[in-house]
Amino acid sequence: MSAAIDEEEGPRVEALVGQQAQESQSLSANQISQTDAITTSERVQPAPTNDIVSNPHQDEKAELRHGTVDKSTLPLPPAYDLFIKDFTIGVPRPKKYLPLPVPIPYPAFFSKAKDTAYLNETIIRNVDAKCGSGEILAIIGGSGSGKSTLLSAIVGRLSNLPMRGGELSFAPTSLSTDNFKSLNARQMKDKIGFVPQNDYLLPNLTVRETLGYAASLRLPASIDRSTRLRIVDQVLNELSLIDAADTVVGGFGGLRKGISGGERRRLSIACVLVSLPSVIVLDEPTSGLDAYTAYQLLLTLSELAKRNRTIILSLHQPRSDAFGLFTRLLVLSKGSVVYSGLTDKCLPWFSALGLEPERGVNPLDFLIDISSVEVGDESKIDASKARVERLINTWREDGDAYSMEKGIRWSRRISKEIGKAVDVQTSTNSTLKAFFMAREGDSSLRRPGVFVQTLTLTSRANKNTLRNHGQTLGYSFQAAIIGVMLGVSYFQLEELPTDIQSLKTLCFQYMAAYFYLTIVYSIYRYCNELVVFDRERQDHLYKVIPWLISEIISNLPINIFFPSLFAVIIYFMIGLRTSPLAKSLFILIAECILVQLGSIAFSLVSAGMVREFASASLMANGISIFFFLSAGYSILKPPPYVDWIKYISVYWYGFRITAISQFRGRTFACENVPRDSVVANQCIGDQVLVGLRIKPSETLWGYFVPCFCLVIGLYTVGALLLAFWKPGGVKHAAKIGSHNEKEALPESDMDIIRQRVDVQVKGLGLSWMRPGFLFLKRRERRILDNITFSCPAGKITAIIGPSGAGKSSILQMLAAREMNAGPLSRFQKDGTILINGKPLSAANRDTISFVEQEDDYHLPALTVRETLRYAAILRLPQSMSKRSKLARAEEVLKMLGLEDCADTLVGGPLLKGISGGEKRRLSLAVEMLNDPAVLIVDEVTSGLDAATANNVMRGLKSIAESGRTVIRELGLTLHQPRSDIYTLIDNLVVLAKGGHMVYAGPRKQVESTFQVQGFSIPEHFNPADFLLDIISIDHRPEYETESRARVDRIVQYWSDVPKASKKGNEDQEPNVEANVPHVQQESRLTPMWIAAPTLLERTLRNMWRQQPVFWVRVQQTPLMGALYLLYYQRLSRGPTGGQDRIGYIQQLLGALPYIGLLNSVAIFPVERDLFFHEYRSSAAYSTATFTLVTTLVEAPFTFVANLLLGLLMNLLAGMVTSPQIYFQFVASTFAVQSLGESTGIIFAAFTPSMGLSVSLVSTALSIMMQFAGYTSLSVPKWLQAIAWATPPKPAARIMLINEASGLHLNCSPESIQTVEGTDTIF
Description:
Elements: H1 13-32, H2 40-43, H3 56-65, E1 80-90, E2 97-98, E3 104-105, E4 122-131, E5 136-141, H4 147-154, E6 163-172, E7 192-195, H5 207-218, H6 225-238, H7 261-273, E8 279-282, H8 291-306, E9 310-315, E10 328-333, E11 336-342, H9 346-352, H10 363-370, H11 378-398, H12 400-403, H13 408-423, H14 430-437, H15 450-466, H16 469-489, H17 497-538, H18 544-574, H19 581-609, H20 613-629, H21 640-643, H22 650-663, H23 685-691, H24 701-724, E12 731-732, E13 759-770, E14 779-791, E15 795-800, H25 807-814, E16 826-835, E17 838-839, E18 848-851, H26 864-875, H27 882-895, E19 911-912, H28 916-928, E20 934-937, H29 946-961, E21 969-974, H30 979-982, E22 987-992, E23 996-1002, H31 1006-1012, H32 1023-1030, H33 1037-1056, H34 1059-1066, H35 1088-1104, H36 1107-1128, H37 1137-1175, H38 1183-1212, H39 1219-1246, H40 1250-1267, H41 1277-1283, H42 1288-1300, H43 1309-1313
Parallel strand pairs: 5-9, 5-10, 7-8, 8-9, 12-19, 15-21, 15-22, 18-20, 20-21
Antiparallel strand pairs: 1-4, 1-6, 2-3, 10-11, 13-14, 13-16, 16-17, 22-23
Helix pairs in contact: 1-9, 5-6, 5-7, 5-15, 15-18, 16-17, 16-18, 16-40, 17-19, 17-20, 17-22, 17-40, 18-19, 19-20, 19-22, 19-24, 20-36, 20-37, 22-23, 22-24, 26-27, 26-35, 27-28, 35-38, 36-37, 36-38, 37-39, 37-40, 37-42, 38-39, 39-40, 39-42
């Protein structure tokens, strides 16, 4: 800490601030940011002797590519000021939810009266702030200080967080309007652009397409197309996205390689900037960006502010020269204000308290440091807590006058800009001027109407759908494989009684086999895609109806082609009615298309009710049981109270259409069947229809038209849900007391001797290649080019460079991680990686631990302390006792400053837990538990505030230099390193975009290397920021040619340096201590007797705290049985008893595998991702251990659920039963459901795309069910033999034998003549 707080206050702060203001301005100019007045281009100018030759053709090409809106004449948007006064936000009331598919909270009167502690808890408290038009308000503070919550309040998206007091409002700036009426956040919705932390983007569009569609939806309809395109080009240039403009965004289930994380972040910001909003609110806009791009973004925001905009943003790690860009600062500490006011009065305020930054220290880092609680020993923690408390109290007493103070420079600037905008007249920007100068309610402010929205969204959805190769592949498998398997099961049916019965079954069964898969996959797809829909609807980009129309139209080709393909396959393989062929085939195709659309519409309704796949699929599964049972095949006479459901079931209409088209007016040959026998009645098609309670005289249009109307009705219900129903949203996790929280643990005894490890990289190269295939052109891109450097033991080696320089690719290759090149593509690698002089292989890669960029593999329902403790048990040596392992977990927890959130749930997409910075530190802590010999960290400080990033790096440095050699080598990438972090680095690798090296060697020699080239690092300027500035390309048209030439020259210089000169840089001889013995490596796999109990406890605890998921596993199977009872009640012994029993068993065994599939999809993917992560790290345990634990977790729930199912369906339904039959029933259903769950696990482990996995699993299950033989009496013998290897066939035999033995049905002569219930004959 650069300064300490005096014990005594001294004079009042107000007086001291006024006296020191002039001194602070001198400090800021000369001591803190001496080069702030120098532009980036001036800062990176080389020596005059290095002339740059301009290429006129290149300049002309750049000018043509970068059409720009003339900034000097860009009209001003409406001006608004933000006012926040004594604003307080509390925590939501704790809610417990009923264990239902849709999360419904317990009624309030069930809550205990004493549950009022939450009323005294707040997230932010007594916040005062102001930001006027033309100003930038930067909100800074440590992780968990409430920055994101305050921004959510500013944009009116607090969700379920209650306002406890105060006021937050907007008012038109007095200089631009005479209307002073205050507006709240909701009234400002069309004038605020909000960029959240997370990126919600469609994966299959290019960057330019994404931005173009955003402009079309966000900008008013009065702005013409050419202006929109020029705005898009301008934003692409300003955010340095022009090089990635024609690259797809990527990210679909890991199947498509797209833009980098930093580019995704910039694209999210660009989507908001194209709307030219009056107020721009950005939550951590520079996270994931390199320092140069981050600074360029802040410069862009500064220019936007000068154009009459109000900018509010939060920052984690701002660079030093950004300090002068901010008009106002709001410094928060754990939700309380430490400072709020003009930037130029901030340092005098703290100076009056005895806190001044040291010379050359970034003032923003200084502010975050003094407002954060330090980590380390208890004395530092106590001192920092006292300091922060004093700062909060001082501001509360004396700071009111500063937060609302008006800046003189701001008002002058606005006056000047308004005068300028009025005087300038250009035809280019006349449309924009009309837009900006329009008053409230003016037609020029209106966004595109419904028709334009529909066209735009349809075009966007068409591209996203057609490029979704995983979805297309899944539908192809579904249509072709299920069609072929059904064709094989019912192959070339003849005109015999058994084949007639099979044909009757087929009229219903093909729908259950094909369209249930459509429901499962569509729910999964909508649960993912509606996240983007919800995000864009929050921005009021479009109405629901245009989105729904675009969704239907874009998917219509798929929903027509693949059902038609399926219908053609089964029609000719099975040998359906050939007279008349064209008419009958067209009827089947049309019916399949209608049922497909109805199934998808029903899926939309389910996902519209709840966004969580586990709950949505459970609800859909329960409702679809009603629909399938109402179809009229499985049960002929449903009870009156459920009989009406058939009219809202597309499967009832589909079954009747198919049955009528196949049986009406048809007489089957039925050779060798006596004409006067009962069996002969089945040879008359009209009699078969009468037995199914279908009138042969009914017209097909009488079913087609209502079915079409039903499809429209389901889509209408889905639209109403999307428009008015608000799903449960994100729940806020409460703290959970650790069961060993008060336990006295011994001191950690991590005295393990690690072998010293040196890493050398020689000539490393990486290329992405996609060969030409059919209509695809061959493509190749060089990612890394001849990379050579070394990482000596005991040193910190950092890799820096702009986004797209290949930093993450190098680290993944060093960690021996597999990289996904995407479909039909591959990576080509060259060069060598040496570990202690030996090539990197499976034998020596176990010495390496790798912290990835993504932190989403943690289990959401475990606390931070529990996550670390379980990881310690799995990662630390067997020789350590469990208490010592837990002590080590506590040590690392304190080392990384996680004490405050130690008992808070980690959280996930639907559970708000710890912050992003805290989750990043948790990932670091997990990998640091066992003191790895080599620790590789990708973006080590990404998502961390400046104070936490500094503490983390100092901890890593001290560990690397300790006598225990805890970390012998540390490799990491940095995007925005602060200056004091830069000094902790021992060796530096600098990369330019495209994977070109510009430096590798000791950090202390980097300055001299670049000075020779004419680039001198200015005094008091962060060297890391300077390096990133000179090796980055400025995509603004006036600077692009010059900056490209500069970067090319720097790359060429390094490649031309003789190897002898680089010897001391790239190939440093490792400083190996001779007295460190070779250490025998332990087995990387944790023994099963340690891992299995730990994993079992961890998994069960995670599941128990996710109550919807936990109870869904127990409820889903018996719920299905209860729904069946509503239809079948007590099985009768009348004429329909045989048909009902066979339909009963068919429906039961047909649905159970899919319930198992849904259970696996709801839980297994998270466990799988964690297993893969741990298997590649020091927490590795065998696949046998993981399989055993998964089985022990899944099997008991499945067995208990089937015990309850047996009580309902075997005992209460009136089946033949006894204790033996009951347990045989339970064993049969348990085996069939386990088949679905196991198959789901197998395919989910095979592919990371759950959408493709669900389609493949559903297809495989349908095939197994078809071969079982109880839906078709015409399955070939060889397929029947294969079916005995799967549970459905023996399970069906067991149930049928137990039920049919000794069963007598009471059938009247009339019922026999109409073949009602004649299934019992077979």
